[in-house]
Amino acid sequence: MTQTLAIGRYNPADRAALVDTFGTTVVCKPSALAELGSDLRAGILAVAYMGHHAFGGAQMDLLPNLQVIANYGVGFDAIDVAAASARGIKVTNTPDVLNDDVADLAIAMWLMQGRQMRAAEAHVRSGDWAKNGPVPLNRKLSGGAAGIMGMGRIGRDIADRLAAFKMDIHYHARSKKATPGWTYHADPAELAKAVDFMFVALVGGPETEKYVSAEVIKALGPQGVIINISRGSVIDEEALLNALESGEIAGAGLDVFVGEPQVNPRFLGLDNVVLQPHQGSATVQTRAAMAQLQRDNIAAHLRGADLLTPVN
Asked: Which of 117, 155, 233, 278 could, after both became Cys, cross-link 151 (CB 3.0–4.6 A)?
């Protein structure tokens, strides 16, 4: 009898690795748990979880002997960690292995937005460059002031990259961090007021929902740009759209959205926004490393060893 259940739409290679390593049963989403036989569910000790469907106490209770949930991804807000802890279930995630890719994409969206690269490429492809001459001048990016909203692992990697652009680095976090003299702001609106560009790298979940509020967005000012690579929920999306449409801020680069993969159609009509399909960690190498770390956590638990990357 299998001891491991995988929930999510795994690619063929990762699915095969789970099956070959653990004899894993695979379902697409938590709602499919009820369709499994009670004997199979009773034998499950570990869940490999992937996706954004809610996995809460009701789903956990369908697996009465569940001991560990290994999440695929650094963000684990889809999993009710408090419910898991109350049931003695450990949760893990896959931090660090994706930091570089996510930070790289944050910088890429910043450059694309500020240098108007989408419009500039269209200018070349359409033949307008030859017919009508160069595009309008755009914005100098290096040497400005950048704010990191959430100075965790990914936030730090974004800041390190921005330092190479000669940026003045500011940040907001729950407490001061050891930095090379970067400026700490205890208040998120004060951070926004102090910078030209704000990079959002917060952990998702109820505690950070709409953390980047209408007040914070307004404080950024008419030259301000928001780059978000964390979760769509951490920004008041309605307030962000209003600010982008009215010119209250200059623009945004967004890899995440509320209700994704459905995106508010108001974003689609904006020229001052770079839109990406939540692909921060989406490279072949990083996704393979995430899947391996997920399997390594399950293997460690099943052999009675310490978990590699515990959350609770």
From this structure: 155
Query: Is residue 1 predicted with pLDDT exceeding 60?
Result: no
Residue among 185, 231, 295, 301 flagged as catalytic = 231
The radius of gyration of the chain's CA atoms, rounded to the nearest angstrom, is 22
Helix (H, G, I), strand (E, B), or coil: what is residue 92? strand
Per-residue confidence (pLDDT) for residue 2, from 0 to 100: 72
Taking a C-beta distance cutoff of 8 angstroms, is the pair 272, 252 a contact?
Answer: yes
Spot the catalytic one: 115, 118, 266, 278. Answer: 278
Cα 6 from Cα 159, distance rounded (Å): 35
- Choice among 190, 209, 248, 260 that is catalytic: 260
Joined together, the tokens standing for residue 65 give 């002997």
Closest among 241, 266, 257 to 204, alpha carbons compared: 257
Active site residue 245: no
pLDDT computed for residue 169 by the predictor = 98
Mark whether 266 is an active-site residue.
no
pTM above 0.85, yes or no: yes
247, burial (CB in 10 Å: exposed 0-12, middle 13-18, buried 19+): exposed
The superfamily CATH assigns to domain 99-275 is: NAD(P)-binding Rossmann-like Domain (3.40.50.720)
* Catalytic status, residue 260: yes
How far is residue 11 from each of residues 28, 50, 101, 155, 288, measured CA to CA in Å?
11, 11, 19, 28, 10
Would you tell me how many other CB atoms lie within 10 Å of the CB of residue 228? 26
For the stretch 101-158, pLDDT in tens is: 999 999 999 999 999 999 999 999 999 999 999 999 999 999 999 999 999 999 999 9
**Average of per-residue pLDDT across 287-298:** 97
95 Cα distance to chain centroid? 11
> Quick one: fold of 4-95+284-302?
Rossmann fold (3.40.50)
CB 161 within 8 A of CB 103: yes
